[in-house]
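User: If you would, consider this record:
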Amino acid sequence: MEKISSLVAESIDVKTKILKDEAFLLNIERAVALVVDAFSKDKKVMFCGNGGSAADAQHLAAEFSGRFYKNRKALPAEALHCNTSYLTAVANDYSYDDIYARLVDGIGFEGDVLIGLSTSGNSKNVVKAMEVAKNKGIITLGLTGINGGQMEDLSDILFAVPSKVTPRVQESHILIGHIICELVEASLFED
């Protein structure tokens, strides 16, 4: 029981640090405005990550393309790892490091948004995707752990969660993503 309480307290502590960081909260507001603007201009939001971060990317993309709270039109959002034929072909023919960069180059356009998730901020395939996105005028939002890694310099807005513990970072990524999804939906589809 003590270990469980400790893990819950650790998760709450990370979120409390975010709550008390005004610059972090303002960056969430800025990200919401950028995503609202992109969707308002018929642009899309792309997500990428590996492992648990891929699952989080897919989850958040579904909140936009499906629904969050409201019954409304689908928003153009997708997680870039969901086409397994593409993924395995590019990983085999080129490199796993290129899987997201090639897709961003192929389907990403200026004014789109790329949201990269990496607890270290150094996942090579996410970093390469962010590099391609920056070169194409695609807005980049990075969700990382405390240090930001290589994604720090590639993110128009970086959410460096104040933790080095992967599960705590990923829990916070979902929190941040859900806040963005909720506020974007509320802004675009007012009652």
In short: Helices lie at 2-19, 22-40, 52-65, 84-93, 99-107, 124-136, 166-188. The mean pLDDT is 97. The beta strands are 45-48, 77-79, 113-117, 139-144, 157-160. The first strand starts at residue 45 and ends at 48.
